[in-house]
Design a protein that fits this description.
This protein is of the alpha/beta class and about 350 residues long. About 40% of the residues lie in helices and about 15% in strands. It contains eleven helices and ten strands. A five-stranded mixed β-sheet has the order 3-2-1-4-5, with helices on both faces. It has a five-stranded mixed β-sheet with strand order 8-7-6-9-10, sandwiched between helices. The chain is globular and about 65 Å long. The structure holds 5'-O-[(R)-(carboxyoxy)(hydroxy)phosphoryl]adenosine and zinc ion (ZN). Zinc ion (ZN) binds next to helix 4.
Length: about 350
């Protein structure tokens, strides 16, 4: 951060999925003000995120939220040093709304624009709260759209060691919640149910466990849950809790096994870091902590509010990039897909994620 004055203030905007978020973050890691508006109520009747509804909600909320966050901090746009917005990957309507808003503010106030990769926001977010976290580190990025193991060598420098060949972990949680009728959003609902369930009640598959294949796969596990629930005569809340707990235990085994394997091929890693919405899951965090301890590495997991989508991580990624002079022009494009490691090996499989 040497090239950036500690007081430099970055306005961050996030709108790539179903959270509208705005934050003001200083280069010295102070979060000056922030707001996150969830759209759960809009999407709940559909059991998943509806892109058109999401885009409309972002349009309605974003400008008043920017005004409110600036007012909360008692500053004007003229006092902001740069404007960072998610430019992808994500639902393209929402991404465009956030990026175009940031461009308009950047142009009107004559401030540098930072077009941020949402995944880089998640990847660098642990450094916002842990000033001691140095590159390179191994990152398990687990969210609704992604499940990847990344060697984070520096800002903008990522090597993808593994990805999912089908569903992302969060997607599997969301689908299992739907199958079991646990409600939306799915991840927290499954975790809640799993707390009262028996993880040994069902023998579920652990795809790719102990194989030389580095990648993740969750489609077979999800289908096994679907079959088990269809075959169940007892569909009581306790039965759903037992299946949720069995599913979560299988996910924990898959995530820890693949992470151990990645650590073995990245001996230079200084820490094991987990980020993304699924990192909010306590069972997953604790299992990964044990993996780190076993490898003699520090374990870093951002606080829960920083794991799920927020704008502080976007502002922080903006601060990291601004410090290196990595600013963007007003011609920056919104991208539905934007892999962190463009050289990452192409993996085969339905619904392969970037
Ligand atoms: O990072 P995020 O907020 O948005 C994306 O970029 O995808 O991640 C959202 C995902 C959803 O699939 C949600 O179900 C999952 O994270 N999630 C969880 C938990 N909290 C959120 N999954 C498991 N356990 C949780 N406690
Ligand atoms: Zn995310």
């Amino acid at each position: 951060m040497s090239a950036l004055a500690p007081g430099s203030l970055i306005l961050g905007i996030e709108s790539s999925c179903d959270e509208t978020a705005v934050a003001l973050v200083r280069a010295d890691r102070t979060i000056v003000a922030q707001a996150v508006a969830s759209q759960d109520a809009e999407h709940r009747p559909f059991g998943g995120v509806v892109p058109e509804l999401a885009a409309r909600a972002h349009v309605e909320r974003l400008t008043p939220m920017i005004e409110a966050v600036l007012a909360d901090a008692g500053i004007t746009l003229a006092q902001v040093d740069a404007i960072a917005a998610t430019a992808g990957p994500g639902l393209i309507g929402g991404v465009m709304i956030g990026l175009v808003t940031a461009k308009a503010l950047s142009f009107a106030a004559n401030k540098p624009l930072l077009a941020i990769n949402h995944l880089e926001g998640h990847a660098l977010s642990p450094r916002l709260v842990d000033s001691g976290l140095q590159f390179p580190y191994l990152l398990l990025l687990v969210s609704g759209g992604h499940c990847q193991l990344l060697a984070v060598d520096g800002v903008g420098q990522f090597r993808r060691l593994a990805t999912t060949i089908d569903d992302a972990a969060g997607e599997a949680f969301d689908k299992v919640a739907k199958i079991l009728g646990l409600g939306f959003p799915g991840g927290p609902a499954v975790e809640r149910a799993a707390k009262t369930g028996n993880p040994f009640a069902h023998k579920l598959p652990r795809p790719l466990l102990h194989t030389d294949e580095p990648h993740f796969s969750f489609a077979g596990l999800k289908s096994a849950v679907l079959r088990a629930w269809a075959a169940a005569t007892d569909k009581s809340p306790q039965a759903a809790a037992d299946l949720a707990a069995s599913f979560q235990a299988a996910v924990v085994d898959c995530l820890t096994d693949r992470t151990r394997r990645a650590l073995a091929v990245m001996p230079e890693a200084t820490a094991l870091v987990v980020a993304g919405g699924v990192a909010a899951n306590t069972a997953i965090r604790e299992a990964l902590r044990s993996v780190a301890v076993g490898a003699g590495l520090p374990f870093v997991a951002p606080p829960l509010w920083l794991c799920t989508d927020n704008a502080a991580m976007i502002a922080w990624a903006g601060a990291e990039r601004l410090a290196l002079g990595l600013v963007d022009g007003l011609d920056a494009v919104a991208r539905p897909r934007w892999p962190l490691d463009p050289d990452g090996e192409t993996v085969r499989g339905a619904g392969v994620k970037a």
